[in-house]
Design brief:
The structure holds two protein chains of two kinds. By secondary structure, chain A is an all-alpha fold. In chain A, about 80% of the residues lie in helices and about 0% in strands. Chain A has a single domain (about 40-280), classed as Orthogonal Bundle (MetI-like fold), CATH 1.10.3720. A two-stranded antiparallel sheet of chain A has the order 1-2. The model of chain A has no long low-confidence stretch (mean pLDDT about 90). Helices cover about 40% and strands about 25% of the residues of chain B. The chains are: A mainly alpha, B alpha/beta.
Chain lengths: ~280, ~280
């Protein structure tokens, strides 16, 4: 009983600390962006002609669209690929190949984002620019982000698939279902929550990814008209300009941080809602 | 403090005062403990500040009795603070204007930026109006300035960077007039972007670009108004896209101030100046 109580205390303190850090960050962002939230008109963030902070124009919307499009693109490519990899590992690959493949995917997860960015800048962007200049584009950002979130989706999907109870498999074989029939009809529905959670985690990472995107996306503030147009994401905007920003410009950068946090919050709320619907 | 109260809403005034009081207390106590070190305050240009910060750190190591406080806020703040005696030395990243003749300026280093293209690009030189045309989107193909028939990729710097400011100042343009295809952060990213794109044109600090060319990067620095883009031409003042980085004082510098300015101009800090891609003033 004594150890139980101590353990509970420690766990409570840990949990509280984690939440507190998150709250403190939120408060910090709010305080830093307060001068412009009260001083400038909020409508300006949506209606100003462009993003030219030194000339007093603070339209953040092109960056919101850039952030969302890059993440959506990466999820559209990364989710099927990741799921396919996970299915391959769990159901189709011979044992030794499966463990080798798994190691490789885990290695991919461990590569620092700046390395992806460097590879993108020196290899991917020149390749695209030969085809559709200028090369640094939404497409490059989507491809680099896909590579970065792929291992995350694969690993979480693997865990979700492996957690499907054995009796479901036995029942499926008893019913004489084919392997694909078992996967599509029994395993995937059973593992849906875990797989979705993994994809949402990956989406949150894609939204916030900074260095790699900064290096390949071109960073022009505009609503992209095609995959080959450069875009700037909210995170890249902060990284690009924070070191040299002063006064209102600096505060608006904190507003973009706040906006990014709100996007991630909406995403996790969506995840919660999905989970609830699953249980009903 | 008067300016501070203007910024805070009334409810936060008390908290602000409290913090200031505590800071003041700590400062007094620590000041008394080390028998009052001499304090040197520098304010001004954010271009010069990182360099001066490095120099100040080295200066503090050699002269342990001095504490140097470096703050940014732009060249005009440097001038203002020195005139009001809030700062001992101002950092100003341009020559002094005629109405600033009451001040004394000491050049620490020179800053020059160079336009660069891929080494495969046949264009060797551009004049000012061609550059303005390319960066504002009036000229979109290299053919129009004597190159291949390919679309130009315009590489611009992110807002707030001093190289952008100098470049815009040279072209007499606002940043909103520029139509970029790629926006970059630091010099290294600019160099990588241009080496990776045959049709790109960008600009970076001359020191950084020349170093990469010497190491064999496939780049070409463009001559400007007929002057080759070299560190040497920045140093002798013939390259048009350059400016002096100055330390400014209100009166003839005395004591520590004189010592610090002398130190910043001495050969002892040339490695720091070169590390920031600026050009030391001394010819040797």
């Amino acid at each position: 009983m004594q150890t139980d109580r101590i353990l509970t205390g420690i766990l409570r303190a840990g949990a509280l600390l984690a939440v507190l850090v998150m709250l403190l960050i939120f408060c910090f962002l709010l305080i830093e962006s307060w001068p412009v939230l009260t001083g400038l008109s909020i409508a300006g963030f949506m209606a100003d002609a462009s993003w030219h902070p030194l000339e007093g124009a603070y339209n953040l919307m092109p960056m919101v669209s850039g952030t969302l499009l890059a993440s959506i693109g990466a999820i559209t490519l990364g989710a099927p690929l990741g799921l396919a990899s996970a299915l391959f590992i769990v159901f189709f690959a011979p044992l030794h190949l499966a463990s080798l493949y798994r190691r490789l995917i885990e290695l991919l997860a461990g590569i620092p984002s700046v390395v992806f960015g460097f590879w993108g800048l020196t290899t991917l962007v020149p390749l695209i620019s030969e085809w559709q200049p200028p090369g640094a584009s939404l497409l490059a950002a989507v491809l680099v982000l896909t590579l970065m979130i792929l291992p995350m989706i694969t690993i979480t999907a693997c865990a979700a698939l492996a957690a499907v109870p054995d009796e479901l498999f036995r029942n499926a074989s008893a019913l004489g279902l084919s392997r694909w029939g078992t996967i599509a009809g029994v395993v995937l529905p059973a593992a849906r929550v875990g797989i979705t959670a993994g994809i949402i985690l990956a989406a949150a990472r894609a939204l916030g990814e900074t260095m790699a995107v900064l290096m390949v996306a071109g960073n022009v503030v505009q609503h992209p008209e095609s995959l080959f147009d450069p875009v700037r994401t909210l995170a890249a905007n902060i990284a690009l300009e924070m070191a040299y920003a002063m006064g209102d410009h600096r505060s608006v950068l904190f507003v973009s941080g706040l906006l990014l946090m709100l996007l991630v919050m909406v995403l996790s709320a969506m995840a919660g809602l999905l989970e609830k619907r699953q249980q009903v | 403090m008067i300016t501070m109260t203007g910024m805070f809403p009334a409810s936060r005034l008390f908290a602000a005062k409290l913090i200031i009081a505590i800071c003041g207390l700590i400062w007094t106590v620590s000041g008394a403990a080390i028998a009052g070190p001499q304090r040197l305050v520098l304010t001004g240009s954010s271009t010069v500040a990182p360099l001066i910060n490095e120099i100040a750190r080295r200066f503090e190591m050699q002269f342990s009795g001095v504490r140097i406080d470096v703050q940014t806020g732009g060249s005009s703040r440097g001038i203002n603070d020195v005139r009001k005696r809030i700062a001992d030395i101002g950092m100003v990243s341009r020559p002094l204007k005629p109405d600033e003749n009451d001040l004394h300026a000491y050049t620490v280093a020179l800053d020059g930026i160079s336009l660069l293209v891929h080494a495969d690009n046949p264009v060797n030189a551009l004049n000012k109006s061609q550059i303005a045309g390319i960066f504002t989107g009036d000229i979109v193909r290299w053919r129009d300035v004597g190159g291949k028939d390919a679309r130009i990729t315009v590489v611009n710097k992110a807002e707030g960077r001093s190289t952008l400011e100098l470049f815009l100042d040279y072209l007499q343009l606002k940043n909103s007039a520029i139509k970029p295809h790629i926006i970059i952060g630091d010099n290294a990213q600019g160099i990588k972007t241009v080496t990776g794109n045959r049709n790109a044109i960008g600009y970076v600090s001359i020191g950084a670009a020349e170093y990469e060319v010497q190491r064999g990067a496939s780049l070409r620095l463009l001559a400007l108004d007929g002057v080759e883009a070299t560190v040497e031409n920045v140093r002798n003042g013939t390259f048009p896209l350059s400016r002096p980085l100055n330390l400014v004082t209100a009166s003839d510098p005395q004591g520590v101030i004189k010592q610090f300015i002398g130190f910043a101009q001495s050969p002892q800090v040339q490695d720091l100046i070169k590390a920031q891609h600026f050009v030391p003033v001394d010819a040797d």
